[in-house]
Amino acid sequence: MSRIHILHENSAWLPPLAQALDQRRLPWTEWFLDAGTFDLAVPPPDGVFYNRMSASSHTRDHRFAAELTAAVLAWLVRWGRRVVNGPGALDLEISKARQYAALEGNGIATPRTVLVGGPERVAAAALRHFADQPFILKPNRGGKGLGVQLFASVSSLSAYLDSDAYEAPVDGIHLLQEYVLAQRPFITRAEFVGGQFLYAVEVDTSDGFELCPADACAIGDANCPVGEAPRHKFIIVDGIPIALRVRLERFLAATGIEVAGIEFITDNQGRTLVYDVNTNTNYNPDAEARSGRIGTGRSGPGAIAEFLGVQLHRLPAAA
Question: From CA 9, how far away is CA 6, in angstroms rounded?
Fold first, then answer.
């Protein structure tokens, strides 16, 4: 029987989607892709394959999970399987530089960014491009906002690079990026399912850049400040500007991404800049509960489950 196959490497993020699939009585199974053996000459099982591999997989001791998933996705595509968030989505998930190139190529503005290979070149690049202004240092392959740091000067960056606190990016690539001074201390994360806008979330950035919205982050990741607080960190809002929504949906169609959270910020000059495309998107249950979305097709997990169910039912009868 054809099934929905969930490809991932983090069981802590799976329960909300699993519950939504079970509520709809959809047949599904998980593929935990931190390791595995696959005979490329043998056809994969029938069904719909949903890729949820995360750019932050290496932070959970799954160093080569993304590389393994890329190979598995190629195998699935070779045999004509229906893949949601296929090879192109994974390629952008694990490289912010490639994200920015794809966004700019589709007419979507991103922050000014300098790509640097090799830690010995980072300080010199910052001196050349951001000497008289604050700037951001981030890994090209990150996830959850991990490793994103603000520096007020090149000297403070140099001190960090020479300290024991410095952590090299997993792919060896640093990004230096302009610091965008927001109109308010918020970013907006627009959620898309099936390539269509679902809802947007305002995220309070007062506590820093680590912005994982998943409920699991609140209980399992001390570096991800989510959950109950005197002020709500995640607030669902009605929508985003229609022109931006159209551009983002066109970008997703052009890149083959079907499920994503796209984060953007509006600066004090009115510029709207997109700085992250997360193809392994998670949803904050508290924010969804406050907006009456939990347990419905208007929730993130519910919308994904319904989308995957439609894709499963569209498969040829012989599959």
Answer: 10
- pLDDT averaged over the chain? 90
- 84 neighbors 4 (Cβ within 8 angstroms): no
Structure tokens at 27: 């047949």
Q: CA 163, CA 143: separation in Å to the nearest integer?
A: 23
Are 190 and 286 found together in one domain?
A: yes
Given 152, 178, 204, which residue is the final one in a domain?
A: 178
Tokens read off for 24:
């709809």
Task: Write phi, then psi, for 66 (nearest 5 degrees).
Answer: -65, -40
At 318 the pLDDT is 53
In the sheet where 259-266 sits, what is the strand order? 234-237, 196-204, 186-193, 259-266, 272-278
The total number of structural domains in the chain stands at 3
Q: Averaged in consecutive runs of 10 residues, what is the pLDDT profile of the chain (319 residues)?
A: 95 94 97 97 98 94 96 98 98 97 97 96 97 94 79 96 94 95 88 96 75 43 36 85 97 97 92 94 88 85 97 83
- Close Cβ partners of 124 (under 8 Å, ≥ 6 residues apart): none
Strand partners, 200: 190, 237
Per the listing, tokens 């000067």 go with: 153
142 in Cβ contact with 148 (< 8 Å): yes
Contact call for residues 76 and 83 (beta carbons, < 8 A): yes
